[in-house]
């Protein structure tokens, strides 16, 4: 592999700034690796060679002319295929959008374009971000670069696999219940769900609007910090976006990296997220990292969040409820495919039904049915109303424990990557993969995964750090500490040895 692709985005930024490499060279290396390996990995649904190289050439021209550029200018990036890109296919992993070409860019896309990051393509995902394995994509699954017969997590398995196989140093994902973090854990990459509202959702195809959040997918904590700084901030087009300055995450991360300081840090181990149901090797890696934090001087406290036991149930009522409403717009009238009934009158309602029957996959249909059911007049209080009460209890649990500790930690996912096909026919088994990631979405607090070990089965494990709302900086600091106390997981990946010629 081209050695450039093994480097972090920030290392590449230094090379670009020193004119030791051009963005065209770097972006070409990235595109060539995608071309050579995507047939096997299937991380990308669409590759925009022309668009990416045009951006790269433009950045090189500006740099040569001495123009001031963003630090990440010229670094190739991949986008999960639920972020709309003007004139570039956006499928959400679904057939229903057909050949739809969005007429506008998501705010994050506008930011990336303005900063000069070549967007190399759109990555595979579970249909409409529903799933934990990327097997629910209408375009076929993505392989985990550690073992292509295994899942790369979901729903953002494509972005995670692209970064884990050194196709790109940076990607964006979206996290509604864990879709950035769980893929991060099972592919040995860093994945961040920022505080709800910290990154604009404008142009992110909505799944569950009160839970969805865009965030970075990278191989290092420092790269994620730099990327979040870039994409974060207030957006008048997203009424839930936070109107406050973006914290200086990069400086915080590099300070921790150079001092290794844990002065007075209080770390809470969540009882409910580190016991039953977790693979032995995952738990062992988790406790090992907690022990390293203790030895480094952090105070470790065991804390209990009893309502977390109900988080998964509450999520699988609230999320489908919101999704059933958000997905009502895919009706054969506005975007994508339009299917007419095979026989009988062509009424609007029957066209909608035929379009949705043909265009949506099983998991999407399951959730729309569930969502409309829990919102229906007779069941609203019993299901949706109760789930919202549980959501409040979860938020209170967070408030209470965050008065005792600075951050909470847990394993990110209960197991290492499972085999493609193992859980696809058992929705409950699939849903259980998000047991540790969902509480953060329900409360809107930031959470991230950092690879901390390779388990006994030779597969990577992730360590989750959760911080109070708006304390993303603290989360990044602790994640950097964990990274510094852990082995270098990503370079242990077999994908680090893959050659493009294979
Ligand atoms: N796996 C979870 C689900 O299926 C989370 C999805 C997500 O975060 N987009 O709903």
Number of strands: 11
Q: What is the CATH homologous superfamily assignment of the domain at 3-259 and 408-493?
A: Amidase signature (AS) domain
Distance N terminus to C terminus?
A: 11 Å
Helix and strand element order: HHEHEHEHEHEEHHEHEHHHHEHHEEH
**What small ligands are held by the chains?**
glutamine
Count of separate DSSP helical elements: 16
CATH hierarchy class name of the domain at 3-259 and 408-493: Alpha Beta
Structural category is alpha/beta
Helicity, as a percent range = 25-40%
Describe this structure in words.
The protein is α/β, with parallel strands linked by helices and 502 residues long. It has a domain of 343 residues: Amidase signature (AS) domain (Amidase signature (AS) enzymes). The chain contains 16 helices and eleven strands. Strands 1-3-2-4-6-5-10-11-9-7-8 form an eleven-stranded mixed beta sheet, sandwiched between helices. Helix 2 packs antiparallel against helix 3, helix 7 runs antiparallel to helix 8 and helix 10 packs across helix 13. The longest helix has 21 residues. The chain is globular, with a radius of gyration of 22 Å. The mean pLDDT is 97. Bound molecules: glutamine. The site of glutamine has 14 residues, from loops.
